[in-house]
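quick one, two chains, predict together pls
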Amino acid sequence: MTFEELPAAVVQTDSDVVAGFAHDEAQLVDRRLPLAVLSPRSTDEVVACLRAAASAGLAVVTRGAGTGLAGGANAPDGSVVLSTRRLDRIVAIDVEERLAVMQPGVVTADLRSAVADLGLFYPPDPGSVATSTIGGNVATNAGGMCCVKYGVTGDYVLGLEAVLADGRVMRTGRRTVKGVAGYGLTSLLVGSEGTLGVITEITLRLLPAPPPPATVVATFASLTDAGRAVERITGDGTDVSLLELLDATTLAAIDAHTGMGLAAEAMLLVQSDLPDPGPAIDSVQAACEAAGAVDVVVTTDADEGAQLLEARRQALPAMERLGDWLLDDVCVPRRSIVALVEGIAQVADDVGLTIGVFGHAGDGNMHPTIVFDRHDPDSLAAARRAFDAITALALELGGTVTGEHGVGRLKSGWLARELDPVALDVHRTVKAALDPHGRLNPGSVLS
Amino acid sequence: MTFEELPAAVVQTDSDVVAGFAHDEAQLVDRRLPLAVLSPRSTDEVVACLRAAASAGLAVVTRGAGTGLAGGANAPDGSVVLSTRRLDRIVAIDVEERLAVMQPGVVTADLRSAVADLGLFYPPDPGSVATSTIGGNVATNAGGMCCVKYGVTGDYVLGLEAVLADGRVMRTGRRTVKGVAGYGLTSLLVGSEGTLGVITEITLRLLPAPPPPATVVATFASLTDAGRAVERITGDGTDVSLLELLDATTLAAIDAHTGMGLAAEAMLLVQSDLPDPGPAIDSVQAACEAAGAVDVVVTTDADEGAQLLEARRQALPAMERLGDWLLDDVCVPRRSIVALVEGIAQVADDVGLTIGVFGHAGDGNMHPTIVFDRHDPDSLAAARRAFDAITALALELGGTVTGEHGVGRLKSGWLARELDPVALDVHRTVKAALDPHGRLNPGSVLS
């Protein structure tokens, strides 16, 4: 099988088209032009694409919607991009067993809404939910605001079909709730960012739809107070379905963007979707008040709750208005969130850039967002210094270099610092065993 | 490093001692005598043991408490057993971050009670909880009655330390709630039954202790009625923390054993540990009544609930009194539970043996328990036929050959039937990459 033998509809080499598939949303990562974009319409065509790439000795970078933030979909020179955009079919939704089978190119929001129509719930809700694909979510093990209660994408993946580097089709996992037959190959593929195989079908576990959530929004006169509230809420084990923190820089940017009249050192947004959320919400309110909240607003009205969440949803658009942005992703032990946010404020001072911090405080997973000008070499260099300092700080605090965005090309060097040398070596061993010619997304995850 | 160079306290070769470490609780699996039992007291000593085994060219079978039911700890001829019994220290419990670090030989019940003393909860509760070890639970990805709400052991493993076949020490995972840095090596080791490395330290995520549960016990005039109640309860998505089914054969055995006065075609035991379990319990009661339950007993008293659960806890002891027993473990889609239990009754008729079925109906994970006489060749042959028929039935129903006990030596042939050929080949590739000389538990998982 060669590229010439692939159906003409599958292969695009026009440079304008190819440029649109060349990279994801990551900053600080090289952007090159791949030789071609392959858009297979079936697992068989994925097999043909991988065989053709093997014949030609070319690297293959698999790409969902290109919303990644770690350069995992950035195609190196001399590679081909395999787009999953035409593999966009929901194959089956089994209401009784609460599972769904789909191709990787299904947009996450579409899947969520298709199952919601049947009274079911697919929790993972990465920021890119409206445009990113289930395949990309699985490949990066994406998270979102749901994770404090519902975990990450990988927690919902029951089984996969994947095409290996040599073109063989492998099925992993099961359709039952439980099962321990054999090695965790499903989990090995989840989060492997296209370096071990091309995922062509996904079986997801679903939940019954929860009731609409009740919401608490609290502002604080200091970040430390907000941090104390987070500690109380998570320490109590209160059943919350969302627990987000916004720092003063982010709030100021949102205020400038929306005129919402936000002015606080920190804000917490908390939801509970229990059938009777009263006790949980009371407990959150009490925790915020005990931590010295300036203002606490509570609503059990779902629409009002959605309006209150709007500040959080405007965080990235507000930061975007300030310039180029690098939406970073680190995760620390919950007790270190305040130290992380304070340390990042110090980094912002040191490098002379605006860095807003917001994110999933309930998980310790924060998104420092560095604002810079990529056309100004000094500003770019400062952004890079800030990025390195923040990542180093997360490791110092006992955290990880990525909570939910993945390693990609942006953090492959940092992965090597986070992992112990033997684990890094075992990564290379596994990669070499499954992709001996290093053809699948080379340079991503492992540099 | 040779065996002679190991500290004398680590190596035991006395045949009486060795015999006590030769096998687990599985039936229908060969039992041989290993050459020696190694009981290292530290990770360094585990390294020395594996290096000595490598020098001597011997296979190493790692063993926790030996409560396994799939022969995963059965030592083949010419092997050494590595016992984790002296690696029994809880290293740390971090209340604030809700995690615990321990050596593999810690007894599961001890860990559960140590964290309970601090207001925390480690959910996994395999039937062997009082004697099995966390290391064994991780190696088999053990489950229990908690799984319907709380998932399996692997859902709680944040990170591991493991010694590889060549004696290198690898650390995987993290101490944060979230993290996607690198491949899922933690998940790869979980459930790998000692075939990929020897686990020497485990970091577990914990939960806040839930309130004492409320309990519903319902009896039914037919298995179909009970199955319909299970469908209603799981279909509604009612938040239950336990959902167990006992069939008529098991109930009769329990009645004979305890004189509890049980006589029904099927019984369901259901619990909810929500802070306010009222609505969930009402919903369970309504589901049972709508399905035609003969009798429904409800209590919110924890002690009374524990007494009601006693029938379930007596299931295995009651079956044990009838003869030798093979406690099997299959998992099917929830909608197929009735078909599975009815099919097993047919198998029991066909082979002329008593087979009681009980287990985790909320997960579709049932434990058909075959009663036979292993000293009677005909009875043994019938048990083997029943075992094969039940396992084949589970696969026919879209299920898996093991829901929570593991593959071990008992089901390695069945694993090869369940997996697709490429996935099986990738299992062998991963095994060869991490243990090129096939020294770790050869013959287990992969035959």
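Chain A has 15 helices and 19 strands.
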